[in-house]
Amino acid sequence: MSFPEFAIRRPVAAWMLMAALVFFGLLSLFSLGISRFPDVTYPVITVVTQWPGAAPEVMESEIVDPLENVLVSVQGIKDIESTMLPGIANIKLEFYIDKDIDAALQEVNSKVRSVRLPTDVNPPQIFKINQDDNPIMWLAVTWDKPFKNLVRYVDNHIRDRFMLVHGIGDIQLGGWADRNFRIWLDRKKLDLFQLSPTDIRDTLQAENLELGAGYLESKTNEINVRVMGEARSEYEMRSLALNHRASGAGGIPITGVGGSQGGGMGTTGAGSNQFLTNPAMTSAASNLLSNTRGASSVYLPLSLVAEVEDGIMDPTRLSRSDGKAAIGLGLQKLRGYNEIAVAREVKELVKELKKELPEGMSIGPRFDSSVYTQEAVHETEFTLLLTIFFTASVCLLFLGSLRTTLNVLFSIPISILGSFIFFKFLGYTLNFFTLLALSLAVGIVVDDSIMVLENITRHKNLGKDPRSAALDGANEVSFAALAATLSIVSVFCPILFVGGVVGKFLSQFGLTLSIAVLISLLEALTLAPMRVAEFLNVGGEERRNFFETWLDHFFWKFAAVYKRLLALALKKRGIVLILSFSIFFLSLRLFPVLHKELSPSEDMGIALIRIETPVGSSLEYTGGRVRFLEDYLRKQPYVAHVFSSVGGYSGGQVNFGALFITLTPRKERKLRLQEIFKIWRKEFKKAEYQDLHIKIIDISQSAFSSKRGTNIELSLLGSEYSVLKDVSQKILGELDKSGMYTDLDTDYREGMPEVQIIPDRDKCALSNISMQQLVDAVRYSIGGGRQGMYTNEKDIRRYDIRIRFIPEQWREPRDLEDIPLWTNYGGEPIHLKDVASLRIVPKLMNMTRENRRRVITLFANVKPEYSQARALDYAMEICRKYLPPTYTVQPAGASQTAKETFSAFPYALGFGIIIAYMVMGIQFNSFLFPLIILCAIPFSITGAILFLYLSHLSLNLYSGIGMILLMGLAMKNSILLVEFINKKRFEEGLETKEAILEASYIRLRPILMTSLATISSAIPAALGLGPGAEVRVPLVIVVIGGILVSTSFSLFVVPCIYSLVSKVGGKPPIDLEEWLQEEKVSSY
Q1: How far apart are the C-alpha atoms of 521 and 489, rounded to whole Å?
Q2: Residue 228, beta-bridge partner list
Q3: What percent of the chain has pLDDT over 90?
Q4: Among 386, 418, 661, 704, which is least packed, fewest CB within 10 Å?
């Protein structure tokens, strides 16, 4: 029993099938997430290790080498990139795209824990990184109170509120400074009391403790005993007693002025008299020394030598919102969640918080990528509705009956809603790729219904009753419908084997479209004939208005003209074939002329500018230069908001900054994004910006790489930095001369000033000072050394205690010379200059290795008028020209993705043709007929190339998807033609030429209907309206051009080829039902 027969005989089952697809499709739709691109997990893990004060070369030998030695054995690693900065080592492990990132994380964690690192190295931190984890929104919080008050309020009242929003996974903090309890030492006061920074550290170790001391046990109770020795307030911390030296002198007490212990303050001659007459000495200290003269020891509170403050850590980053100091909250969405719904909930929470904020505080979004996502998704949804309207118009035009047209259109909601069921189980979201696939599927899913209903109508016109017409008409085209649908599905099969990010994107498009057309096939072979048999009067009794009659008459006259032209073409088939294929080969000459790029730039209404100030610049200087750029940008009429951040990324280097720019809505500005970029690049070439490295980042390209986001990224690998440096400068010069690139730069930076302290070991030994004491004294003087924890009882927060000189005492290198180290037994203080010398040397700011080889990476953007593929090939050629033997170049980031894409499409096209040939060979039971059908493909490529060239569009990821889709669509029409010619030849016994003419005449109408339906479904997207049009247009232009040209040529070329090779044609396809019946009879 065939599918149409089953549905006609059991209509209730068919109705239940349709109801199930609609009902469960709607349920699935409401639970699907929404995002701009498919949720693709970039399998990247970073291992970050901190060793404060260590130079990059020390980080390389002591941290990176031992870690890499064990990490290389982790399965599935594609690349290892290590970056060494002062005090920080970052090892980035990139795995192949199909690697289970959670399993990899466990394996990496196990390997890292097995390595023994130096004892004072902070434990390595391991993170998963995903490009989709970029914040969907940046909120800015500003207040006109001191910054530490803002930090405290955000920490206590705001941050956790956003973490509770459904769908928020994490929050990045811009301009943030962790809360710290600060002990600000005064070096001059330390000298007065002959103390060193390590004495303060030792006091905290001894006096600021909270420990369990055991427990009390009776017959009935057990009570814990705890010594609450931690300071609970600023007052308690100020009162800590500086009574003993815990290191270096065996615990010698700090004594009174008249005491006799050499390690303290016992000598008055050169001691107290000098201190008492020192004008810098406080009155409290003077009174204390006077009142304790001759005492064996004194009580010295911490407040005599230091100020204490419940504050924040030393700033290493800052943020501003429209010129005001701010804290930025970067909200990261969990994978699979609805980006638009999450952003909506965040904005509702912002409205609530505004009612609760203190006077003078404000909060609001300053950078919101969800706005573009929402606009692009809504535009695609509108395009989908417009597509349905256009397709319905074409169907009505050709079918001439509103009821028959509605029957055809039933396939659209059933196919789309049925696809959502599979989305739910596949974990897909409603994104650009899946929605565009559904939009294009609208014109394809109606093809099978058109084919079936048109043939049912033909049978009814032969005088059959509705049930017989429905059954015979549907059965007659079942094979052609199955073959045509499988031809589309088969061309997307190779995409499943394409690796990398592009493969993930393509697979979602291909699977979505394949699922939709397979459901439409099921609908066409079951529900459509059932509805005709049950409800619709498809016979001649139906009234036809004047327009329908005229249109029908016009079409058959057109078909008659086509039949005469085809007869002429068959007589001159050699000339027709030579001319046709000559046009195809001539069109290939346009292929090298086309611009080739990974993806067109989209005007998202947002932009990112990264800047880098000279090596060694301070946070204050970088902040000032960022403010200079802010001032320029805020004056531009097309800029709505500017949110800036300094430091806090790329290892927390304070000479790096980023500006997140939100532009005014597209309807309110005349300039498009690329035009604005051009204005900025011209501005940034002026003299006042020459000390800055400025990169303008197109955020629309960020989804294709986990790197920096420039068009061109090339890694130069070798063994010596000096060679790589020289070569990279030569390459940059050549690339600049070519005129194809902007934003040329490398990641190599040298000249980082470093103050090196050179101890004199003899002097240290005579002064009883160890290297550890010297290092600790410097660290707790200028490094903000941590010592213990402080608990704020008001808001129950616990944070680090940090010791450091007051800021004005560690501005210049010479300030280091006066760091107090110890007091000798003669009572004289010893300073750093007494036992060590200083020197300032330039050093590398960072060192980078890739796959255990040293690397310098080149960065550039390609000018809009040049092809990315050509620019990449030229850059690779220049690199190979200058690199010495054993030194290599390889694409990185977006360049690597582009290379993978450019090589993946020929593979996908070639293997798609092979798989389609195999499928059709099985269906037609012939080696020859599939080859005839495949002859339509070259002309679809001709149409695609020609329309891209005339439209001044590039060959990119999206137009490549259109090419793959086009193969299936081109074969679909040829299948209809060849299958019907075979019926006329092998079933009705017509001669080859007569069969070709008759079949072509009869099938012209459904071929034109299906082709125009597909074209009409692409027209709304081709209009280039709304957000996301930049990437939709190339795809649909390829489809429109390819369908137009391939349909026009295949209507003549395919019959001519069939006629030419018919003498060696294979057998017709075997009817499966007849074959099974024959086998059953023969078995008896």
Answers
A1: 12
A2: 210
A3: 20
A4: 386
Q: Which pLDDT score is estimated for 495?
A: 75
Phi, psi of 844 (to 5 degrees): -65, 135
CATH topology for the 602-697 domain: Alpha-Beta Plaits (3.30.70)
Give the model's confidence band at 967: pLDDT under 50 very low, under 70 low, under 90 confident, else very high: confident
DSSP secondary-structure letter at 1067?
P
Q: Crossing angle of helices 546-571/573-587, nearest 10°?
A: 100
Joined tokens for residue 729: 């400068």
Q: Which residues contact 468 (CB under 8 A, 6 or more apart)?
A: 459
Q: Report the topology of domain 556-601+892-1074.
A: Multidrug efflux transporter AcrB transmembrane fold (1.20.1640)
For tokens 């030296």, the residue is 245
Cα-based torsion angle of the residue sequence 546, 551, 553, 556 in order, rounded to the nearest 10 degrees:
-160
Cβ–Cβ < 8 Å for 215, 222: yes
Dump pLDDT digits (tens) for 484-523. 788 788 887 777 777 666 777 778 888 888 898 888 888 8
Tokens of 413: 């909601």
Mean pLDDT, range 809-823, rounded to an integer: 84
**Tokens representing 932?**
């005839």
Q: Which CATH superfamily is domain 43-129 in?
A: Multidrug efflux transporter AcrB pore domain (3.30.70.1430)
For 127-172, what is each residue's pLDDT tens digit? 887 655 678 889 999 998 988 899 989 988 999 999 999 888 888 8
Single pTM value for the model = 0.78
Contact 176, 151 (CB under 8 A): yes
Measured distance CA(685)–CA(742) in Å, rounded: 11
Which pLDDT score is estimated for 286? 53
Give just the sign of the alpha carbon dihedral 80, 84, 85, 86. positive
HEC string of 850-885 equals ECCEEEEEEEEEECCCCCHHHHHHHHHHHHHHHCCC
Cβ atoms 764, 773 nearer than 8 A: no
Residue with token string 């040397």: 841
How large is the angle between the packed helices 992-1022 and 957-982, nearest 10 degrees? 150
For 558, the token pair is: 């057109």
Number of H helices, E strands in the chain: 36, 28
Domain spanning 1-31+401-536: CATH superfamily: Multidrug efflux transporter AcrB transmembrane domain (1.20.1640.10)
Q: How many CB atoms lie within 10 A of CB 20?
A: 12
Strand partners, 890: 715
